[in-house]
Amino acid sequence: MAIKQLTVFVENKQGSLVSITDTLSKHEVNIRALSIAETQDFGMLRLIVNDTATAEKVLSEEGYLIKINEVVGIKIGDAPGKLSAALNVLDEKKINIDYLYAFMSRTEKHAYVVVRVEDNAAAEKAIEDAGLHTITEADICKL
After folding, report:
1. DSSP string of 126-139?
2. What is the model's pLDDT at position 115?
């Protein structure tokens, strides 16, 4: 099952990122993973959080432009070669990855990879068929 990712368009200036994190913190939204890509004038902050609805609401109220995408979360072992094995599964099924980022769990010996693909269902099936595990919104809340 795909997980929801927030993409927040952020002005590339001092204080912009802390404003977002402060807003989320004040509303008890916990960031589980993030990635930021920047250009000279703005950045795209991608977030996986424990409460997507609240995060979207409070950031929108603060004037941020928000986009919600569904992405696939993959649970992999925290060892050399595990990421490559997971990516090979998708490659063998001709599933292109638009982007990815990873994060670690604080309690397990696993890493998690978030991938953006065109067909989430096909990617999830390929991952599960290969004996790997996807993660759900409920799993994100438990991290």
Report:
1. HHHHTT-EEE-HHH
2. 85
- In the structure, what pLDDT confidence band is assigned to residue 48 with cuts at 50, 70 and 90? very high
Q: 3 forms bridges with which residues in the sheet?
A: 71
Tens-digit pLDDT profile for residues 111-123: 788 888 889 899 9
Residue 106 confidence class, pLDDT cut points 50, 70, 90: low
| CATH topology agreement for domains 3-68 and 70-142 | yes
How far from 122 is each of 5, 29, 45, 69, CA to CA, in Å? 18, 30, 26, 16
Q: How many residues does the chain have?
A: 143
CATH number for region 70-142: 3.30.2130.10
Which of residues 37 and 86 earns the better pLDDT score?
A: 86
CATH fold for the domain made of 3-68? VC0802-like (3.30.2130)
d(CA 63, CA 8): 10
Neighbours of 74 (CB within 10 A): 27
| Residue owning tokens 């065109």 | 118
- Section 74-102 average pLDDT: 93
- Name the amino acid, one letter, at 63: G
Domain parsing of the chain, residue ranges:
3-68, 70-142
